[in-house]
Each structure stands twice: as C-alpha cells, then as structure tokens.
Amino acid sequence: MSRPRPNRASKYMLDERERGSEFPHRWPGRSCDWEGEVSQYSAAVSWDRGDAPFVDKRYSRAHVWNFDGGAVVRASSSPEAVPVPYSDPSGVDPEEAFVAALASCHMLWFLSIAAKNGFCVQTYRDNALGILAANSRGKLCMTAVNLRPHTVFTSAKVPSPEAVEAMHEEAHQECYLANSVTTVVTTEPTFEIDVQDSSRS
Question: Is the model's pTM score more than 0.85?
C-alpha cells in the first residue's frame, strides 16, 4: 500500500458535521470552517538558551511542545542528529513525532471504519518505523514510514483477512497526514480474534 494520491480529507469532516452536537464544531486551539471544509491546528514550541554561549553550537536542543487541552511534551533533536548532552534522549524528536503522527492518524481512521462495518476492536498496537534517507535532490528526508498495526477483534463479528486489508487500505486513503506528505507510507497489518471477550461487543 504505497502511492501518492489526491487529498480526500473532507469525508470525515462531513461525517462529523452530520452527527450534530456529539462533535462540536470548534475546539480550543482549532478553528473550523465547515462550509469551506477548512481546519486550523496550533502548537506552541518553546526553547530557552539558558547560559550556553550558543554561537559555538554547544547549546541544548531540549525544548517543549504545548498543545491545546494542556498537553505538554518534552522534545529535543534526535541523538542521531545531535550528540548527547546537546540532545535530550528522553525527549521526543521531530522525526519520531512525524512517524507517530502518521501512525496515529491511520489508527483513528481504521477504528472509525471498523466501527462503521460492525467489527469490535479490542486493542490496536502499531510499532511504526520511519526511514530517514537522502532524496533525489540529496536532501535528508523521511523517505518512508512503515506502519505495522496489530489489531485484536472480539468474536462478536469476525472479519476476514480481506476485510481487514480493505479497512486498512481505506484508512490509508483517508488519513489526512498520509495525504499531506510525499513520504511513501506502507502498511503491514496483522490481526487476531479474542474468542474469550465476545461479551464486550
């Protein structure tokens, strides 16, 4: 599953609009124009020099991301790019965040599609992997992201392997972020049935 394709992000917005007050049209930090199907998302990034000279390039790359709703994330450059102690290994680096964002977007679409088709998902786990390499212009970029989701379904309604593959393909096609990047996004899904948990359906 890897291909560039046109942006098809409007479908989910229209679905949410049709559901009415269950999904309010505005959230803190986001502004939505449903008529024009345009959304805006914000993030605040903060960094302070401290007492580092800076011009010698020996300064900390640790910084903070703040999101609407109060989430605060410690961030840093990757130790692969900038050595410790100037990188903070405990912080999330932009490359990891990029991979996580694609994996999260895909998962949210997959869960929505599974629910729409009557399949009850018990758990979803994805150990996604991003590849940073030189592109055709010799610039480093995230050339590929491999999603490796494993889904556990309850036994109330059991999907076929073809149905699971089709739902992942639809999620891939609908994911806003996959539609926004030139990165090749591939998906290698696996799944199983939790035969002991049908009561949760």
Answer: no
